[in-house]
Every structure is written in structure tokens, then in C-alpha cells.
Amino acid sequence: MPNVTLSASPSTLSVTQGSNNTSAITVNPTNGFSGSVNLAITSTLPSGVTASFNPKPATSASIVTLTACSSATTGPATVTITGTSGSLMQTTTISLTVVGSIVVTISSSTAALAATTQTQQFAATVTGNTTNFNVTWSVDGTVGGTAATGTISTSGLYTPPSTGGRHTVTATSVANSSYSASASAAVTDLAAVFTHHNDLSRDGVNSQEYALTPSNVGTATFGKLFSCATATTAEAQAGQGAVFAQTLWVPGLSTNGGIHNVIFVATQHDTVFAFDADANPCVT
Questions:
Q1: Contacts 24+ apart (CB under 8 A), 218-227
Q2: Contact of 152 with 122, CB cutoff 8 Å
Q3: What is the pLDDT of residues 29-61, one digit of tens each?
Q4: Do residues 106 and 88 both lie within one domain?
């Protein structure tokens, strides 16, 4: 007598809230069966989970898609798929687990760097119902980055390219690649600020500025980060004189046993201070 059997591959499936997953349902004809089989879910799905088949009915195979909304009930469930053709009826099951959504965050939303010489350590945090808290790092969509966009290690250490520009660093959940977070890496290839108002034209223009934009320079997001004192007491300040000269900046300077971006400050009494441009609290 013609008959069929059904099988699901994979038969164990997990679906994260807000996403979907699929399994292939194979219709195996026996004893000369050549008809089509209508497929349906005949068990109770977890709240917030829906199912669809393509194609339906099926003659040899169909893909079942299980979709969980963002508030779907989490936990295990057995999904029974029943195939009917006339008086014939067969079933197969899928062990389904609905897991909570994953949230990926990055420690810094924007990093401003000097080309080539300055690195940035990004850190990613993965929360949610997952046992794998690892991430894959990419730059402008390429895992590990490139020489043109900058490279990033598996631990999130970003090394900028030799040219200026703005790049997107992304941490993607290994457990579910649908979840990720991104940060901007603004790389300047400005040679330095060696003179008053940046250049001999005294126009004050920095044409290699990629971190500051009209959208992020405002009272809520822009302001003084820290200050460095040229003297610690009023008497000492009087002896040093005021600072009226423009602060100068040199990136990637080899000094004091390492590579630093350095700010040079001159006082009225001809004392020059060199500060690490990125260190807070100040390093002289």
C-alpha cells in the first residue's frame, strides 16, 4: 500500500526572540506513493511563535520557518508536524527552544585617533539568553579590517590606517549574527599643529578633522574633557605667567619611553610644558 514518512532536518532548533529559524521537512514516499502531502503544525506553539511552510502542500520537501516575536515565551517546546494525503497521516517532531534576545554594546561610541601611531582598545559586552558571549570584530563590514580601513584584533584592538577618514567598527554576536553594535573610528592624518592658527595662512582650518561634526558638537555632547595646570599654586602661576600662545599639537612623538600625541604649551615667562594629549589625569 502506498505510504509516506516525514523527517525534519535539523530536528533540534533554537530561535531567538525577534528572529526566525528553519528546518527542512522531507517527504519520503514508499510503495509507489506519488501524491502531495499537506503539512500543518498540530501541536501548540509557544506564545508569540508562528510557523509557515514553503511549499505547501509538498511532494518531496518543504521548508518550515519558525518565527518568534520579540516577546515570545522562552523555553523548550516540542513542535509536531503532521502530513496528510487522503487517508494517510504521518508526523515528525522538532525540539524547539526559544531563547531571549541578545544585546551587544561597545565601550566607546566614537574614538578619535591619529593615523598609524595611535591605537584604540574597544570592548564589547554581550548580554541576554546565550551561553556564548564572544563577538566577531569587523571594520567597515570586513572581519578583521583591511590596510585601507584599519585593522582590528580578535580582542578589539583597532590600529588605524595611514590615511584619514571615518570608519565603522562593529562587534557581532557569535551566538547570533543578527545582533551587533557599532562605534566610529575617526582617523586624522593631520601632520601636526606647528604654528598659530594651524598654518601660515592663519585660517585656523583643520581639513583632516573627522571626529567632530555639526551633529555631535553641541551643548549636550561637546565640551571640555579635562584641563592641565602649568602650576599648582597662585604664587607659582604668577611666576610662570599666563598662557596666551596657541597650544600646539604633534602626533606620534617618540618621547619619555614611548609614542605619544603631545600638546605643547608656552607661558608668558618662556616656560614650555609638554603634556600627553590623551592622558586624563594629566601626564607631563
A1: 225/280, 226/280, 226/281, 226/282, 227/282
A2: yes
A3: 988 888 899 999 999 999 999 999 999 999 999
A4: no
